[in-house]
Design a protein that fits this description.
Rossmann fold; seven-stranded parallel beta sheet; alpha/beta
Length: 241
């Protein structure tokens, strides 16, 4: 299912943001809108799309909120066909999730498959479909991984492996896109200061976490002229932890 909640605006840079209704995706979407870009904000559920459209309604026709299941290649294809995009200048993959808390021998194959789907296959499907557009514009890709992909942590094996696969995909994109001027970089945050994480974090812990607006500014930098020449990089963002 693909639903558009606004009309087209031409002659401006265009970004596609996945997971746009999530905590990170929402602030990234708004950062690009503030920077006068057109944004296709992808979200999996219709109710999330409606809420996002209402919350960012002040940006008018530059915001396109799209219901699109990026775990499904056909849904991604339908989105691009319906949108009639001919160019894209940035793809920011904010979609993802975590299921953790078990040792390796306690982790079911279903959990492993779920983590690979939401953290890796979604990015693969999106990049596979949008790279031809990025190559025509010399655009940028930014993905969001996690420190557990680089540093072993207890009871996060499936999650860490899926984020490590996302890092490898991003760096492969940087290599394959080089001759077309496509840049691809991966942000590696520790704990992000989100409403969901605040439910379990103490005030003493929260103050050291990565702030959402800092991630959005890093994404913006990597996708604009300020990030020219940066590709294949892993950018750690650990707050003050």
């Amino acid at each position: 299912m693909v639903t558009f909640l606004s009309t087209s605006v031409s002659n401006m840079n265009t970004a596609i943001v996945s997971g746009a209704s999530g905590a990170v995706g929402r602030v990234v979407t708004e950062r690009f809108l503030k920077g006068a870009w057109r944004v296709y904000a992808l979200t999996r559920r219709a109710e999330s799309a409606q809420g996002l459209s209402q919350n960012l309604s002040q940006y008018g026709q530059r915001l396109h909120v799209v219901v699109c299941d990026i775990a499904n290649p056909s849904s991604v294809h339908n989105f691009l066909t319906t949108s009639q995009l001919h160019q894209c200048h940035a793809v920011v993959h904010c979609a993802g999730g975590i299921r953790a808390g078990t040792l390796i021998e306690e982790t079911s194959p279903e959990v492993v498959q779920a983590m690979l789907e939401i953290n890796y296959l979604t990015a693969y499907n999106l990049l596979r479909a949008t790279l031809p557009l990025l190559k025509s514009s010399g655009g940028a890709v930014v993905t969001i991984a996690a420190t557990s992909a680089l540093r072993a942590e207890m009871k996060k094996s499936a999650y860490a492996a899926s984020k490590a696969a996302l890092i490898a995909l991003t760096q492969a994109t940087a290599h394959e896109g080089k001759q077309y001027g496509v840049r691809a970089n991966c942000i590696i945050p520790s704990i992000i200061d989100t409403p969901a994480n605040r439910e379990w974090g103490t005030p003493e812990q929260v103050v050291h976490w990565v702030r959402l607006e800092h991630i959005a500014e890093a994404v913006w930098m990597l996708c604009t002229d300020a990030g020219q020449g940066i590709s294949g990089a892993l950018l750690p963002m650990t707050g003050t932890m």
